[in-house]
Amino acid sequence: MNKVYALADNIITSLGFTTEANFNAIKNGISGIAQTNDPKITQVPMYTSIIDSEMLKNEFTQFGDTTDYTRLEQMMILSIEKAVKQTTIDTKSNDTIFIFSSTKGNIDLLENRRQEFDTERINLWAIADEVCRFFSNKQKPIFISNACISGVSAIITAAHLLQSGKYKNAIVCGGDIISKFTPSGFQSFKAISANPCKPFDVTRDGITLGEGVGTIILTVKKEFVKDSNPVIFRGGANSNDANHISGPSRTGDGLYFAIRNTLSEANKIDINIDYISAHGTATQYNDEMEAKAIGLAGLEHVPINSLKGYWGHTLGAAGIIECIAGIRSIKENCLVKSLGYNELGVSVPLNILTKFEKREIRNFLKTASGFGGCNAAVYFSEENAD
């Protein structure tokens, strides 16, 4: 089976427009979450992580006209451009597939910019078509929208396609924006925190939403890889606990199955995992369920964090952004603290990271869960790791 290499990446959030800017910020405990009163987003003050519109416009005008593309399309194009520039791959090649993830897509077209674009632009496939057209790629793109596991699922789909030999390169891009519609559903569940979110903490009271885009480029072409000991995809799996449309199984079985199947695919049932990047949304139900799943897998001793305290829950981008941060943890041999955490608030004694640590990191497990009972996990490691 072909090895799948993590070739290049980019993160765009309120913390910056590059992976380096974002990772340097979180290493230093800096959060992009702030209170907003923007009437385009909320009727009442709310903590969110929003990308600066003027900065986005200034960055994007290097590549295209902002009037031709929606806010999300601009973010995706910009992120892909910054990732592709780090490589020698040809975006026009039939060997390259584009895979996208988002939960809301161009949702702002229902509110603020409906007169500026054709009505079909609200469709998810239209985003994929526009972005692929920008990069002159004629392959039929794939768009995954499966709640909050969308980003992780997109990576798994890409890796499995590359392993099958159908393509040589995959450009995986996930993103979501914050509009007035985005928080409304979470507010109806009373699931939005009154403060910046506190994953796994005893005082946690809900999520903090964030805007973001992440792009990761995967390849089977070893000659494209510059690192002497590159990071590779080892395994990934999805599951569904079919518990409830808006609530996870409280036993943690569904996510446990995804973790188990991921490690089985990687042939690493008895593996010593160096780090777990948790979904950690800071809702009561998610964090408790996730803790139980990790306990069922026998991994409660593994250092774990949630990155939601830095840039919020970026929805369809979250899995990709957080995988990129995990890869950066391997490359820089460090772990960042789980921002917002002070005291354990779940029933399983997880090993939550409370400070920045320098240590050897050769692999990591990323978990994700979402509405509809969906769960996913993915495992990356150094190529030369045991």
What does this structure look like?
By secondary structure, this protein is of the alpha/beta class. It has two domains: 4-224, Peroxisomal Thiolase, Chain A, domain 1 (3-Layer(aba) Sandwich); 231-382, Peroxisomal Thiolase, Chain A, domain 1. Helix content is 28%, strand content 21%. The strands form three sheets. It has an eleven-stranded mixed β-sheet with strand order 5-4-6-8-1-9-16-15-10-11-13, with helices on both faces. A three-stranded mixed β-sheet has the order 2-3-7, with no helix packed on it.
Number of helices: 10
Mean pLDDT: 95
* Most strands sheet: 11 strands, mixed
CATH fold name of the largest domain:
Peroxisomal Thiolase, Chain A, domain 1
Q: Architecture of the largest domain, CATH level 2?
A: 3-Layer(aba) Sandwich
Ranges with pLDDT <50 over ≥5 residues? Answer: none
SSE inventory with pairings:
Blueprint: E1 4-12, H1 19-27, E2 34-36, E3 46-49, H2 53-60, H3 71-84, E4 96-101, H4 124-134, E5 142-144, H5 150-164, E6 169-176, H6 181-188, E7 209-210, E8 212-219, E9 231-240, H7 253-265, E10 276-277, H8 284-296, E11 303-305, H9 308-311, H10 318-332, E12 334-335, E13 351-352, E14 357-358, E15 363-370, E16 374-382
Parallel strand pairs: 3-7, 4-5, 4-6, 10-11, 10-15, 11-13
Antiparallel strand pairs: 1-8, 1-9, 2-3, 6-8, 9-16, 12-14, 15-16
